[in-house]
Amino acid sequence: MRIRIIPVLAAATAPAALAGLLLGTAGQASAAVTQGPAAAVLTANVQHTYTGQISQTGVPDTTFGGNAGPATVSSDYGPVWAWDDITRNITVTPAGSGLWTVTFVENGTYNAFADPNSGLPWSNTGNMHGTVSYTVTSATPPNMANLPASLPGMVDQSGNQVMPGTGSTLAGSTVHGHGYIIGLLFGSNASVSGGPWSYHYTQIQDVPGTYKQVG
């Protein structure tokens, strides 16, 4: 299961300067219509879809708690079996008054140091693909200019990148996951509820075809 860090949206879980990473942004457009000599004005605000992209290295990938084993690494979010190098494609669409749907489509590679099903030692690199969506409540649209081009997947308390698999626990480390990224876009006053997610992995030991984790 991919880590889906949601707690707090203040700049939480690991995420800086804007770096031309936006695939497209749109603000709010307004149109004025004049009727008759009284020149009555009608203003219509139009909400748009926002898109952006961010690349990350060393993103911790978790498996289900029951699959923890001697080679997995303990974290605040579950047993970590691999670290991922991924590109997250982000789409934000209006979903009603003050509501937004935020969808992440992610592609990259996983670098396993444990079997995600048994937790036993296992090393491999393969492809991964995932999608996950959230509903965000926010009176203001996302500020895509706050999205950096890249972020480390996880940092320690000093802000140095941490690579999963280097110790017995990652407790206290800051993961730059979905919750952190949503916090960058909407600020600390937004609230988030989780939606469906699905992640697929190739070349997982003892798994024919594609290994899937869904929720």
Overall average pLDDT: 82
Count of runs of 4 or more consecutive helical residues: 1
How many structural domains in the coordinates? 1
Overall shape: it is globular
- Radius of gyration computed on alpha carbons: 20 Å
Fraction of residues in helix: under 10%
How do the helices and strands line up, and which of them pair or pack?
Layout lengths: L28 E7 L4 E7 L3 E13 L17 E15 L4 E16 L6 E17 L12 E3 L1 E2 L18 E2 L2 H9 L4 E11 L9 E4 L1
Parallel strand pairs: 3-7
Antiparallel strand pairs: 1-2, 3-4, 4-5, 5-6, 6-10, 8-9, 10-11
Give a concise summary.
This protein has 1 helix and 11 strands. By secondary structure, it is mainly β.
Describe this structure in words.
- Helix content is about 5%, strand content about 45%.
- The strands form 3 sheets. It has a 7-stranded mixed β-sheet. Strands 1-2 form a two-stranded antiparallel ribbon. The protein has a two-stranded antiparallel sheet with strand order 8-9.
- The protein is mainly beta and about 220 residues long.
- It has one helix spanning about 180-185, and strands at about 30-35, 40-45, 50-60, 80-95, 100-115, 120-135, 150, 155, 175, 190-200, 210-215.
- It starts with about 30 loop residues before the first strand and ends with a strand.
- It is built from 1 helix and 11 strands.
- It has one domain (about 30-215).
